[in-house]
Amino acid sequence: MKNTITHSPSRQSLADKAYRLLAEQIVTLQLQPGQLLIEKELIEMTGIGRTPVREAIQRLAAAGLLQVLPRKGLMVTVLSRSGLMMMLEARKVLERLMVVKAAERATPDQRRALQTMAAHITALGDDLGGFQRLDTRLYEVLGLACKNSYLVGALAPIRGQCRRLWHLQNNAVDHSRVTYLHGALTTMVAEGDGAGAIRALDGIIAILEELINHLDILG
Predict the structure, then answer these.
(1) pLDDT tens digits, residue range 158-209?
(2) Facing residues of 75 across strands?
(3) Can you tell me the distance from the alpha carbon of 154 to that of 128, in angstroms, rounded to the nearest whole number?
């Protein structure tokens, strides 16, 4: 029993690390949509052992980022216009609920953190990397503030695909508008204004819809 307790968290932490490393490679397009891979490549890429990497592969497949091809290996999931639109349809409903509940339930400390974050977001300009780091932190705080782990879990794979979309269409993005809307959303949640947060969110969704419509992909 003692050995199980000692080793299990270590293996899980390695699986988490492998998942984060590989997900980052996929969403930032260092691993391209449609790219074929084998397990050995992912082990070498992460420097992590086979069992944690296999667990990470299962999670990436469940998140829609990797596709397991029987007897052929792995493929980075191909993006389709119809698939992205369905994803965005779900995100709009789920994220509206998240921002409203976060606006209602955030603690004073979380509201202060969001106010600080809003100022940093609006000052980013066209720094995509900086924006995505703050955006990730923003949704961590919103996820805690909304106090609904089921909602957070449902949104996680959708947000991964949206990050890929931002990278694919980076040159077409109006960064000043994106940062303004994210800053507004963050401020509205901090102030407890759920309706205002929804208005800002709808603006963000509208930008994503435009990016999807202009993607040079089929389907």
Answers:
(1) 988 888 888 888 888 888 899 999 999 999 999 999 999 999 999 999 999 9
(2) 36, 67
(3) 25
* CB contact at 8 A, 39 and 48: no
Please give the Cα distance from 76 to 41 (Å, whole number): 13
CB 212 within 8 A of CB 85: yes
Contact 31, 37 (CB under 8 A): yes
15 contacts 50 by C-beta, under 8 angstroms: no
Query: The whole model's pTM is what?
Result: 0.82
Residue 11 has pLDDT above 70, yes or no: no
User: What is the architecture of the domain spanning 2-76?
Assistant: Orthogonal Bundle (1.10)
Q: Across the chain, what does the average pLDDT equal? A: 89
The set of residues, in sequence order, having a beta carbon less than 8 Å from that of 164 and lying 6+ positions away, is 26, 27, 29, 33, 79
* 3-class secondary structure, 210: helix
- Fold classification of 81-213 is Four Helix Bundle (Hemerythrin (Met), subunit A) (1.20.120)
